[in-house]
Amino acid sequence: MAGEASKALSNDVLWGGGRSPFSISYGKLMMWFFLVSDALTFSGLLVAYGFARHAVMDPWPIGEEVFRALPFLHGSYPLIYVALMTAILIFSSVTMVLAVEAGHRMDKKGVIKWLFLTVIGGAFFVGSQAWEWSHFIHGGGGYITAQDGAKYWVHNDTHDTHDPANAAGFHLVKAAPGHYLIGDHNSEGGHVEGAEAKALWDDKVAYIDGANMVRNEYGPPQYGNFFFFITGFHGFHVFSGVIVNIIVLSMVVKGVFHRRGHYEMVEKAGLYWHFVDLVWVFVFTFFYLL
Amino acid sequence: MERDDIIEYSLEAHHSEEAGRKIRKNIWQVTLLMAIITTVEVALGAYWKEWFPGSWGMVKWTFIVLTLVKATYIVMSFMHLGDERRNIRAIILLPYGLFILYLLFIAIWESNYVYRMLELFL
What we know:
The structure holds two protein chains of two kinds. Chain A is built from nine helices and five strands, in the order αααααββββαβααα. Chain A is an alpha+beta fold.
């Protein structure tokens, strides 16, 4: 595999000049340096997330309670959608490593096939993230804060968020203590309907529906901010990766690398692509699972 | 514009059809392992309340360990860092490892302090 042939070099020859002591090309080395610096950026974001979560006194939302929806389906599927996104990204990482392997055999057709599948996987991931953002921003009906500070989830039959109090089936569900998203359905006074619900609605201190940079219905404001920044920054990386892969793919099709005698450009694009996958593995754990 | 003073290190990475078969088999094995780990993670995340009542801390550490296992396979196998020379492995992993440990230490220490101060004065 990569660098195998040069492993036998003795240390005297290695540092004697004339060749890279790392047995690695300039381009690949610089890609690694870039990835280390980029990894530190993402680490900074995730560590800052951990800091905020640790320091904030309000209860922090749990991933399985926030991300439980699937497109076109009703009901609760905790984390299934995110798991699907993770699977897509890991699979596109696999097709990328197969493209690199095909390049090492100068198999142009193989490189085209696997690189094309990688582009498809990346596009699917970016699309999935767009849906998740849309779902996160629109929210699930929102909650009101009553005069006594208690939180009530707003429900109605038509999912009307502009004038929910006058929509059919309007009722309120008191939020369970310590949770933002779980309604206290079973306890006494947990379920409020009719005139009582209308009175609570008219006297409300605040109505928060969906998410933006200032507030969100899922938890403390920092939660929404970190969601947008971490997944947004990662999504931007995936988007750039897809563009890079498309450019490299078109060069492979034109036969640029075949004439050059090696497919190292696929390897470099691959390093970046695997890095994007690597970051997502950490985002998945620290943002969604923990 | 051919230059003869540039060593094409990537040529050393070329391998035969036979070696390729072995490498592909290894790639699919790693893939299977990662799929299993992700499935376990999702199952734990979705059902930990029923399976391990009151032991969220243990599940958390399981997640972190499994994530590190996955990350090791991505970096060492998919990114081929395991096949590079030892010196390149060291200059990539050591500075990053040192810095991230420091960053984690400082964040946990400071956030504990901020939490205690909020507790005291709010």
